[in-house]
Amino acid sequence: MTDRLITALSFRNAMAYQRVRALLEQLAEYCTQHGIAYRLQQLYDCLATYDRLLAATHSQQKSLAIVETLIDQAKTKGNTFAWLDTELRFETYAAAMGSRVQAAKTDLERQTNPDDAALDIYNERVNRFATG
């Protein structure tokens, strides 16, 4: 029984990783088409960060939703893989902390002189999954 459960979980994890990798490859293609520079290592860094996000959320569905949202934002705003990795790390921190608002506030408070850009990032993070 245990071996079958482990096999089933491993298969689901493999499917999730394949989905995330496909999304990252789509972003790489988008970056190439739009002249946004990136290194292949950045794609792998994002995949490794996804692994930490999955551990923090304990949910493939939630983790995939986060990745999909961030990749959509990256495409919409022309953001880089570096931005994506930073935001995946933030989402991992927020999931581990249990509060996106508190995580964003803590991140903002760590900055010595937050400027308008830092406040924009705070607002973007707090409202990322807010509905209408």
Structural class: mainly alpha
What is the arithmetic mean of pLDDT? 83
List low-confidence stretches. Answer: 5-9
* Major sheet details: none
**Percent range for β-strand residues:** under 5%
Distance between the termini: 45 Å
Total beta strands: 0
Count of discrete alpha- or pi-helical segments spanning 4 or more residues: 6
**Which geometry do the CA atoms define?**
globular
Instruction: Evaluate the radius of gyration.
Output: 16 Å
What is the count of distinct domains? 1
The helix/strand order is HHHHHH
Could you estimate the helical fraction of the residues in percent? over 70%
Supply database-style keywords.
mainly alpha, 132 residues, single chain
Written account of the structure:
This protein has 132 residues and is mainly alpha-helical. It has one domain (2-98). It is 82% helix and 0% strand. Helix 4 (81-97) crosses helix 5 (100-110). The radius of gyration is 16 Å and the shape is globular. Residues 5-9 have low confidence and may be disordered.
